[in-house]
């Protein structure tokens, strides 16, 4: 039953990330919260790999790809944030509202 | 091939219209007339070629269409469809001729009109449920545009209301069709095949499907309480479109009930006969009273349609030879008579630009020919003996009264009120509009012109001829009615 | 080294070809002078994609390859066909879409081609790892494409909202996956199917994980309540990208959702019911919100949400256990049909936008008087979107309703909600027709239809009509793709 | 074991800081601490290669990127502004529910677990081999994803096309 505590830890981190993503007004802040969520998933996977001995070490391989995607997403996301900052001079999500939400 | 030809000739004509260069409106009118005329000629050929002594489905055309769904392109005619076929092509040609007075966006007008004709013909000829449904829905779109572009002051409202109501009905019908398909074994959309399988369907299933299909058909007829789209659509539509709407489109509803429900769901038909009779009664009485209350001539005739379709429903609910024959005959007659009435209202509206009954008076001395024609049409509509309307209404009532059921007799008795009221409001209308001293304001109105005469007179002739020789239609319908009754007769209510 | 495994790459020839095409475009871009760039680059990408379509048709089916990462099957080929076709259409539109400047058309085309590549992988993924990777691949490409118009705050805003919601749902998606992997011990869908057929396989952890994964899918297909990005992104994005987002991206989303759902929820009544509820919510909310829109692109976004609801009906039927084949067929067919009509209508919208610079419904007033033929084509698409014969939309609707009815009485309520919705939908589609045909003419100028747009609008309109008049080839193609899904 | 607990506690606390600090710069720094402690967890769970990747890519790459963005937009990212919106209470409730649901589900699920010994060579070699065989396709795709994000970031943030 060693696995369950890890799921608990990752669940807590996941929830913190979700909380941050829901409440942050700063787009960069939201981005950081998202990194928490990705890491929560990784902790789960690594722990599963350790205690369930998954086939082909998927529990270690999967996080590598998650990190890769997170990096790619962060790069594109920050580029989007910068380009909107140049036009509207703000990174606050509520203020970016030409179209109705 | 004749049936395919008659169905698609209007469509081909319509597509040909699209290639006519801009501004050549007379060429457009010519092509449209030619297409409608050819369709009428072919339908008359079908009528003459139909062997009444054998009855049943003839001119059958069947070929593969969507093999994966077991859908076939399947067309055929029996007495019921032939009556509708001739009615449709005749009224279409007349409406096309009457529509020469349309001057804005002529090309689009006739394109939509011919597309509509194809849809209507397809509905009456299809024997495959899928095909039937496709044609059924094809009629909606052109009708929307015909009302919405060329209609009266509240045309947009009327058009979308018509569209939403009828689409609602038809999608519910679609569910019923799909359910029928999956219940039949092997899965089929073939109406004749489904009719053969009818005994296999459970009673509950039949009732559920009947209700689903009924909603679709009832909105078209329209049966109370689904009728509210009708006055709007009829009043706002341009004259020729009102003719088609009242003359043909409403028949699609009753035709569907007879063709589909009566052959495929006999148990449910018997089960729901009495409720249907009640609805018929409401249609007759309510329609008549509403018509009486109208001040607008066109609206009055629109409500009289509700009343007249009530007779059809009553005849259908009776499920006797006389009742069903009367219903089919009444469908045909109503198309002819109401078509003529709408044309005639159009004639006067074009001149006076008003349809207020109160505003007219003494038109009889100003437009004697017009008055004469109008009077004949009105008398036919209220069922004066000697004109065609009498026979069909009489048979509907006779059929309903023959049923050995006290409730049915009571309902029929109450429905008779409708006849009296109808006679009353039509006579009041005649008196207010045509009799009495000539109103100074309308002295300048010109007599009905040749184009209008060409479109109305054939209808009047038919009313008179059928008034003396109702046999012509009866012979056609009775063969189909017999087979329908044979299927229904085995079921005890 | 296990070289036998690597030989399987031969089955990925269409994908590899598309990848090379993307890189070729990037290189080509450097050497073409700016004034020819638009024409040459778009031509190169369009013809390249068409060639890959040929390769696709002749590529042999193989089943699971490369460590069971992807499944090369007819199901995937069908969706890849949809994806490539809509990408070709979108690129052709982009050639005539002014806001995308000449100097960035090279990167634009390359990104579109890469997005198509990602979607091609998405539809054949048969492993959670591949699904995650390809879904994110496509998302990242679309984030960029949505924000592609420089100095247009709407475009940037659409991209930001799309990105934030997209990345958020990606996080939830991957977390859900981690729970699913923990509870089943595998990432492979085939293995998962077998494990889940075992006793007690539906552990609470698995259900938790699957529901979280559903968020990710829901986002991809614009399912309520994860739809809120769609109108923003659709309105802000360059219209060719909107067309692509609403067709290919959605089709790919459904392809992968259906694969996962078939593996994960087939026969699990509660989860199927949850999907059914989501389907009902999606179509109803989409339609009700579409009623209030005045911008045509936004309206199509909401109508697209509603259409997602209809397709979900097919997914529900496919997973119900009683109508698997018909359910899958209906999803395939609907995705195809929806692609046709949406691409067509977006082509008309672009043609109109190029003249007036507006997407507002009111500006369509009197359109039929200045452009009778284009207006007629527009009506064909509207009729099809409303699901009325004789158009492709009817065949699609007919199939999803058939599937849901065959799925049993348990889902009859869903069919009835679907019916109600198609009536609501009619109202707003014909509000456009209302302006086009009944409105007062404001602008007498004729819309100059460029050849490419005319070809797209014409071809799709003919196909839309053909798909109802002679639907058998389309139906057999869809039905044939259901076989040998694993 | 104790080390693992320590890392976990640090990770959770720094995660809380990331979502609650007012100054966005501090958030970024706490994010770095969080990522490092997650790397620590990875090491403790015998995922050494992954731990290194975590440090190199995340702390070395993403954090730097975020810091850049924070500084470029610093004018508005001041500590004076309210950083959270009004839905705080609702969000807290939802998140607590989420944790409760997942942990209950985990407890109720019978997971057959065992503690597998660590590979004395570390995981780097096997990981590398797997990436080039079984996971060859995802590996290739990941490289295309990076290419796409590279082009995308350049297009969006660059001056071309303005």
Summary?
By secondary structure, chain B is mostly helical.
Average pLDDT level of chain D: 83
Radius of gyration of chain D: 20 Å
Helix percentage range of chain C? over 70%
How many beta-strand segments of chain C?
A: 2
Portion in helices of chain D: over 70%
Structural class of chain C: mainly alpha
pLDDT under 50 segments of chain C (min length 5)? none
Query: Kindly, what is the distance between the CA atoms of the first and last residues of chain D, rounded to a whole number of angstroms?
Result: 56 Å
Oligomer: heterotetramer
Q: Sheet with the most strands of chain D?
A: none
According to DSSP, the number of beta strands of chain D is 0
Helix-strand category of chain D = mainly alpha
Beta content of chain C: under 5%
Number of helices of chain C: 20
Low-confidence segments of chain D: none
Describe the structure.
The complex is a heterotetramer of chains A (101), B (493), C (486) and D (162). In chain A, 77% of the residues lie in helices and 0% in strands. Chain A has 101 residues and is mainly alpha-helical. Chain A starts with a helix and ends in a 13-residue tail after the last helix. Helix content of chain B is 75%, strand content 3%. Chain B has a domain at 273-493. Chain B has 493 residues and is mainly alpha-helical. Chain B has a two-stranded antiparallel ribbon. Chain C is built from 20 helices and two strands. Chain C has helices at 3-7, 13-31, 34-58, 74-95, 105-124, 128-146, 153-184, 189-197, 204-220, 229-236, 239-265, 269-290, 296-319, 324-356, 367-370, 372-386, 392-406, 412-438, 451-469, 472-480, and strands at residues 63-65, 70-72. A two-stranded antiparallel ribbon of chain C has the order 1-2. The longest helix of chain C has 33 residues, at 324-356. Chain C is globular. Chain D is built from six helices and no strands. The longest helix of chain D has 25 residues, at 48-72. The radius of gyration of chain D is 20 Å and the shape is globular. The chains are: A mainly alpha (101), B mainly alpha (493), C mainly alpha (486), D mainly alpha (162). The interface between C and D is large, with 46 and 32 residues.
């Amino acid at each position: 039953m060693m696995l369950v505590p890890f799921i608990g830890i990752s669940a807590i981190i996941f929830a913190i990330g979700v909380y941050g993503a829901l409440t942050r007004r700063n787009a960069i802040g939201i981005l950081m919260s998202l990194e928490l969520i990705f890491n929560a998933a990784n902790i789960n996977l690594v722990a599963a790999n350790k205690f369930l001995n998954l086939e082909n070490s998927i529990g270690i391989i999967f996080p590598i790809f998650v990190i890769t995607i997170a990096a790619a997403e962060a790069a594109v996301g920050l580029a989007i944030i910068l380009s909107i900052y140049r036009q509207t001079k703000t990174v606050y999500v509520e203020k970016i509202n030409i179209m109705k939400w | 091939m004749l049936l395919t030809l008659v169905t698609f000739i209007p469509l081909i004509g319509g597509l040909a219209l699209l290639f006519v260069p801009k501004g050549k409106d007379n060429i457009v009118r010519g092509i449209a007339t030619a297409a409608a005329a050819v369709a009428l000629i072919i339908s008359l050929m079908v009528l003459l070629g139909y062997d009444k002594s054998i009855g049943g489905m003839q001119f059958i055309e069947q070929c593969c269409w969507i093999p994966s769904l077991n859908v076939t392109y399947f067309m055929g005619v029996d007495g019921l469809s032939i009556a509708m076929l001739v009615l449709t092509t005749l009224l279409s040609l007349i409406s096309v001729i009457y529509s020469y007075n349309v001057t804005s966006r002529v090309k689009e007008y006739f394109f939509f009109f011919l597309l509509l004709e194809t849809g209507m013909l397809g509905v009456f000829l299809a024997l495959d449920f899928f095909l039937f449904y496709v044609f059924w829905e094809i009629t909606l779109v052109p009708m929307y545009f015909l009302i919405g572009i060329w209609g009266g002051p509240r045309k947009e409202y009327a058009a979308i209301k018509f569209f939403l109501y009828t689409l609602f009905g038809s999608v519910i019908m679609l569910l019923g069709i799909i359910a029928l398909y999956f219940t039949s074994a092997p899965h089929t959309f073939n109406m004749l095949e489904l009719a053969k399988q009818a005994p296999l369907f459970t009673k509950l299933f039949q009732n559920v499907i009947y209700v689903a299909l009924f909603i679709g058909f009832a909105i078209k007829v329209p049966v109370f309480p689904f009728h509210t789209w009708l006055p709007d659509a009829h009043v706002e539509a341009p004259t020729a479109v009102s003719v088609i709407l009242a003359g043909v489109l409403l028949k699609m509803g009753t035709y569907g009930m007879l063709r589909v429900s009566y052959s495929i769901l006999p148990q449910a038909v018997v089960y729901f006969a009495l409720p249907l009779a009640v609805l018929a009664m409401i249609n007759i009485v309510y329609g008549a009273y509403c018509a009486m209350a109208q001040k607008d001539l066109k609206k009055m005739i629109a409500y009289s349609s509700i009343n007249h379709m009530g007779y059809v429903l009553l005849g259908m609910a009776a499920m006797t030879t006389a009742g069903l024959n009367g219903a089919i005959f009444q469908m045909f007659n109503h198309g002819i008579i109401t078509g003529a009435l709408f044309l005639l209202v159009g004639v006067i509206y074009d001149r006076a630009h008003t349809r207020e009954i109160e505003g007219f008076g003494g038109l009889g001395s100003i437009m004697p020919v017009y008055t004469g024609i109008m009077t004949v049409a009105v008398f036919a509509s209220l069922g004066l003996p000697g004109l065609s309307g009498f026979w069909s209404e009489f048979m509907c009532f006779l059929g309903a009264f023959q049923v050995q059921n006290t409730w049915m007799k009571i309902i029929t008795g109450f429905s008779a009120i409708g006849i009296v009221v109808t006679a009353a409001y039509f006579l009041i209308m005649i008196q207010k509009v045509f009799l009495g001293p000539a109103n100074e304001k309308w002295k300048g109105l010109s007599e009905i012109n040749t184009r209008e005469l060409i479109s109305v007179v054939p209808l009047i002739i038919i009313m008179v001829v059928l008034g003396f020789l109702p046999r012509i239609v009866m012979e056609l319908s009775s063969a189909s009615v017999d087979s329908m009754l044979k299927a229904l007769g085995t079921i005890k209510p | 080294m296990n070289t036998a495994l690597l030989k399987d790459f031969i089955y990925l020839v269409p994908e590899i070809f598309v990848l090379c095409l993307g890189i070729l475009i990037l290189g080509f871009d450097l050497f073409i002078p700016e004034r020819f760039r638009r024409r040459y680059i778009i031509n190169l990408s369009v013809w390249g994609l068409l060639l890959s379509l040929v390769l696709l048709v002749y590529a042999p089916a193989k089943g699971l390859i490369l460590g069971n990462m992807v499944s090369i099957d007819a199901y995937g080929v069908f969706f890849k066909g949809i994806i490539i076709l809509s990408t070709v259409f979108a690129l052709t539109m982009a050639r005539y879409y002014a806001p995308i400047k000449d100097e960035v058309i090279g990167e634009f085309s390359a990104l579109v081609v890469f997005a198509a590549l990602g979607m091609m992988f998405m539809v054949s993924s048969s492993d959670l790892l591949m699904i995650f990777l390809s879904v994110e691949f496509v998302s990242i490409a679309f984030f960029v494409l949505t924000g592609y118009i420089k100095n247009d705050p709407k475009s940037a805003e659409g991209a930001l909202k799309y990105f934030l919601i997209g990345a958020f749902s990606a996080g939830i998606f991957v977390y859900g996956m981690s729970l699913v992997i923990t509870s089943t011990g595998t990432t492979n869908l085939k293995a998962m199917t077998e494990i889940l057929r075992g006793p007690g396989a539906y552990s609470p952890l698995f259900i938790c994980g699957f529901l979280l994964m559903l968020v990710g899918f829901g986002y991809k297909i614009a399912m309520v309540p994860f739809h809120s990005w769609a109108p923003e992104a659709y309105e802000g994005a360059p219209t060719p990208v909107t067309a692509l987002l609403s067709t290919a991206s959605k089709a790919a989303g459904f392809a992968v959702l259906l694969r996962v759902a078939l593996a994960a929820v087939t026969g699990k009544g509660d989860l199927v019911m949850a999907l059914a509820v989501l389907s009902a919510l999606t179509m109803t909310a989409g339609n009700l919100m579409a009623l209030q829109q005045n911008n045509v692109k936004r309206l199509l976004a909401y109508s697209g949400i509603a259409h997602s609801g209809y397709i979900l009906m097919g997914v529900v039927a496919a997973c119900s256990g009683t109508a698997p084949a018909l359910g899958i067929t209906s999803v395939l067919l609907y995705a195809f049909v929806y692609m046709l009509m949406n691409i067509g209508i977006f082509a008309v919208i672009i043609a109109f936008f190029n003249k007036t610079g507006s997407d507002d419904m009111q500006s369509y007033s009197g359109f039929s008087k200045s452009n009778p033929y284009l207006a007629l084509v527009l009506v064909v698409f509207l009729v099809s979107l409303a699901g009325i014969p004789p158009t492709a939309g009817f065949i699609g609707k007919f199939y999803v309703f058939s599937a849901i009815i065959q799925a049993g009485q348990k889902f009859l309520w869903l069919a009835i909600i679907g019916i109600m919705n198609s009536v609501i939908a009619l109202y707003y589609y014909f509000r456009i027709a209302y302006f086009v045909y009944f409105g007062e003419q404001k602008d007498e100028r004729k819309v100059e239809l460029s050849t490419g747009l005319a070809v797209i609008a014409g071809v799709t309109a003919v196909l839309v009509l053909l798909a109802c008049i002679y639907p058998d080839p389309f139906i057999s193609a869809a039905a044939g793709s259901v076989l040998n899904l694993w | 074991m104790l080390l693992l607990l320590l890392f976990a506690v640090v990770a959770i606390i720094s995660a809380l800081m990331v979502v609650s600090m007012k100054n966005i710069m501090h958030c970024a720094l706490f994010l770095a601490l969080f990522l490092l402690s997650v790397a620590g967890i990875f090491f403790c769970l015998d995922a050494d290669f992954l731990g290194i990747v975590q440090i190199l890519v995340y702390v070395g790459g993403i954090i730097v990127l975020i810091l850049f963005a924070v500084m470029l937009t610093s004018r508005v990212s001041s500590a004076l502004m309210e950083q959270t919106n009004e839905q705080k209470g609702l969000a807290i409730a939802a998140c607590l529910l989420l944790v409760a649901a997942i942990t209950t589900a985990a407890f109720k699920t019978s997971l057959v677990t065992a503690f597998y010994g660590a590979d004395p060579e570390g995981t780097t070699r096997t990981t590398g081999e797997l990436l080039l065989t079984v996971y060859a396709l995802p590996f290739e795709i990941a490289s295309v994803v990076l290419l796409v994000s590279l082009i995308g970031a350049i297009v969006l943030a660059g001056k071309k096309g303005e």
